[in-house]
Amino acid sequence: MENNNWHKEVEKQWDNRANFWNQNSENMWEKGSRSTIIPFLKRYLQPEMNILDAGCGDGYGSYKLYQEGFNVTGVDISKEMIERAKLRLESKRLHYKQADLSDLPFDAETFSAVMAINSLEWTANPLKAINECSRILKPNGILCVGLLGPTAGPRQNAYRRLYGEDVICNTMMPWEFQQLVMENGFEVIDGQGVYKNAVDLSKINHYPLELKQALTFMWVFILKKKG
């Protein structure tokens, strides 16, 4: 699918999903699969940093970062998502823009950190989006990426490609993404998994990294832009 058509289709689909997402986002960030992300990310941030929430959806994750004292800009390809985000709260320290992750409307080295949770998978060219994150990050800036793991149900959005059909979900395995970012200006400084309830967490700590990642619903990377 041509990039321009991909962009339009992603925007359309997430506009259509905005109501469903809005009904579930608070629970995901407070109690569900995203509840551990911001506490994990905070270990690597300094107070009052400027943070970009890349693929912010209805802005609940941005709002959580704002509550922690950060200056936050949320961007999303969906106009409907951005409108819902603005309804929750928009202030001097928290604001939103409709934008494509592959063509961000910011100057180089604007942000100290970027958070991108389950958003790079929806870009036509994930490497281009990664390079955009690098461009707008300051030297030694932090990039937090939540990537769908092998057990994640939403990966089914890419399934129809096996029939030769156009899809707009560019799934990657965690180890593929890790190699990609390491080859393109980032170092991996930490990571943690989000697992389904059937996984015995008491055993996970003894597994090598590739097995931990293989069982995940989502793997959360903490990356540093090389200075």
Automatic annotation (TrEMBL):
Origin: domain of life: Bacteria
Record carries keyword Transferase: yes
Domain Methyltransferase type intervals: 52-144
Xref: Pfam families: Methyltransf_11
SUPFAM superfamilies in alphabetical order: S-adenosyl-L-methionine-dependent methyltransferases (SSF53335)
UniProt GO BP: methylation
UniProt keyword terms in alphabetical order: Methyltransferase, S-adenosyl-L-methionine, Transferase
GO MF entries: methyltransferase activity
Gene3D superfamilies, alphabetized: Vaccinia Virus protein VP39 (3.40.50.150)
PANTHER family tied to this protein: METHYLTRANSFERASE (PTHR43464), UBIQUINONE BIOSYNTHESIS O-METHYLTRANSFERASE, MITOCHONDRIAL (PTHR43464:SF19)
Protein's name according to its UniProt entry: Class I SAM-dependent methyltransferase
Organism taxonomic ancestry: Bacteria, Bacillati, Bacillota, Bacilli, Bacillales
